[in-house]
Amino acid sequence: MKKITLIIISLYFVGCSHSNKKNDAVARVYDEYLYKSDLIGLVSFGTSAKDSIKIVQSYVNSWVKQKLMNYTAENNLSSKQKNFTKQLEDYKNSLMVFEYEKELIRQKLDTSVGDTEMVAYYNKNQKEFLLKDNIVKVWYVKMPIGATNIAIVRSLYKTETANTKPKLEDFCKKNAVNYFLDDSTWLFFNDLLKEIPIKTYNQEDYLKNHRYIELEDSLYSYYVNIKDFKVKESLSPLGFESENVKNIILNKRKLKLIEDMQKKIYKNALESNDFEIFK
């Protein structure tokens, strides 16, 4: 522990001194050394002494273990087993092709996806868009228990007239602990349950039999208007899947772009006699 502490202190001065290299060694595994200079930047300025010691100890121990494993592998594998030339070449080629494809996509991919294209893909592939969980469109309001103006919430949260939402929203901004009035957005019912303490053993039955919900616990009262719902394994609405549909279309475009590029390269090389397949 004392040695590690001294090492940490010396790190702040190692850049200004020219001490003997071997004397600066922190650890050794066979003929390989870890030096103080290798630890520069490991500990951020302002880190406590206790945390600094832990960071340095962890790094040194990991370095020792890795070097021991390297030495053991080096001395227990045959020359053939240690020859990674082909794997490295394959990996390098894969990286180059990947970078080229990425640059091609960056330059050539049309990222605009119109509503017509999204609707067409959604309608043609509806089996891909079955819900895995129940979803809802809701209004909900969370109020402090015993609030004197609860009657206003009760009179508004069930109402469907055009001017109801602005009135309720204005009220909630001033009085509610939390609220959600975006009835154009689908939510996972399970996410709603994290906010509203609804207890149910069968979500599907509950949703089919409850439109307006009033609950309270020791701190809050809750008012929920379930405006619409879809149960799991039914067709997911396009509005809920729009981002997913867009990503699928873009991914198909990427694959098509790469496929066309590969075909073009092959065709040009064939016409230029740049390759031969010997029989």
Q: Helix count, per DSSP?
A: 9
CATH topology of the domain at 131-230: Chitinase A, domain 3
Indicate the CATH architecture of the domain at 131-230.
Roll
For the largest beta-sheet, the strand count, sense and barrel status come to: 5 strands, antiparallel
Verbal overview:
The protein has nine helices and seven strands; from the N terminus they run αββαααβααββααββα. The protein has 279 residues and is α+β, with helices and mostly antiparallel strands. Among the domains are: 2-76, no CATH class; 131-230, Chitinase A, domain 3, CATH 3.10.50. The strands form two sheets. Strands 3, 4, 5, 6 and 7 form a five-stranded antiparallel sheet that branches. Strand 6 and strand 7 (220-230) form a beta hairpin. The longest helix is centred in the C-terminal third of the chain and has 34 residues, at 238-271. The model is unreliable at 12-18 (pLDDT under 50).
Strand-helix topology:
Blueprint: H1 2-11, E1 25-29, E2 32-35, H2 49-76, H3 85-108, H4 115-124, E3 135-144, H5 150-156, H6 164-175, E4 178-180, E5 187-188, H7 189-195, H8 203-209, E6 212-216, E7 220-230, H9 238-271
Antiparallel strand pairs: 1-2, 3-4, 3-5, 3-7, 6-7
Summarize the structure.
This protein is of the alpha+beta class and 279 residues long.
Essential attributes:
flat, five-stranded antiparallel sheet, alpha+beta, Chitinase A, domain 3, 279 residues
